[in-house]
Task: inverse folding
């Protein structure tokens, strides 16, 4: 049983809603990815500042040197974790983008089906009107009778 135009219209509206929701999810995934990229850049900048600081002039305190080494290790672990989180966010963005494209294709195919259905219904109405007009003309004209003129 083919779907009616009304049902197809409802399906197109529903698919449009799903597409908007998917677009929102993609935007959220992109925002999270951007936050993670900024956090990674900040952690990398902190590491670069520590490495660029160089050695202080004068005597070196062993405790300060050990603390700086521990801080550098912590920064390296933090950077590695942030890189992994950013990679995960990139994957999420790619998945959300693919899902959005699928939703768009789905909605678009339903829209095309709806347009074909509407064109088909217009054609059927036109044919029905033509048949009615033919029937009306055939009923007014009877074989063997002269054509009547409607002149006053």
Result:
């Amino acid at each position: 049983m083919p779907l009616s135009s009304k049902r197809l219209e409802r399906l197109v509206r529903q698919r449009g809603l799903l597409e908007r929701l998917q677009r929102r999810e993609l935007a959220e995934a992109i925002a999270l990815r951007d936050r993670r990229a900024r956090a990674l850049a900040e952690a990398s900048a902190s590491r670069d500042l520590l490495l660029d600081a160089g050695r202080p002039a004068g005597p070196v305190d062993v405790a300060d040197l050990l603390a700086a080494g521990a801080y550098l290790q912590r920064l390296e672990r933090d950077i590695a974790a942030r890189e992994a989180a950013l990679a995960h966010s990139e994957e999420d963005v790619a998945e959300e983008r693919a899902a959005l494209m699928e939703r768009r294709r789905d909605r678009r195919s339903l829209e095309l089906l709806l347009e074909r259905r509407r064109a088909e219904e217009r054609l059927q109405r036109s044919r029905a009107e033509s048949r009615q007009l033919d029937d009306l003309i055939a009923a007014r004209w009877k074989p063997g009778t002269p054509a009547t003129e409607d002149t006053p």
Notes: The mean pLDDT is 88. The CA atoms of residues 61 and 67 lie 10 Å apart. The longest helix spans residues 62-140.
